[in-house]
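Teaching assistant's notes for section 4

Start the section by putting this record on the projector. Ask students to predict, before seeing the second block, whether PRD15 protein will look compact or extended. Collect guesses on the board.
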Amino acid sequence: CEDCGKSLIGECKLHGPLIRAKDRVIPSRARLTLPHYLTLRVLELRAGNEQILGVFAKKVIQKRTQFGPYVGQLSTKLTRYDESRLVLQVLKDGGKYFLDTPNEDCGNWMMFVRLARNQEEQTLVAYQHCGEVYFTTVKPIEPHTELKVWYAADYAKFMEASAVFIKEEADVCPLPPVAKEPVDTWICSSCGSTFATFALLESHQCIHKDRV
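Reveal the predicted structure now:
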């Protein structure tokens, strides 16, 4: 204590504790690389204060806008897996490696982009070029729209993935194209009329009974 001129174990009982000044919090490398017209939003807060983040547009982003390359560590296995993010691999020196991002200081902002569950919400396509992975917009992105990505056709083959994935609740699974069901599926046995729902058929059959 400079007031007492004594070296003490712990705080000074006479003059009290020191006033602690904290260092300024520095954003991670990944957050610092975010382009100025994009922003991160917290979509969900899980146990242990784990934040689920999404990348959103702050202004209109034109179609065919390229982002990248994706920054990550080349690894033979993933140290961190998130079902809401794409698994990415590249071909380097004849070997196939994962682009691993165990923490935010090992990657860039592209690690926050979530996967698209269907073609309607997909705004980006991921592909490999010269041993690097890039994301390119497949349509104009309006302000406040989340950027979501899926594999390009050739890259999907390289990743041994489906061309389109659809997320059902907590699971992500490839689904075959679903044929549209005919609108009129319920047929009246009395007159042959068709109806979209069973309730409509029942109402119609009441008319036949009234007539009888």
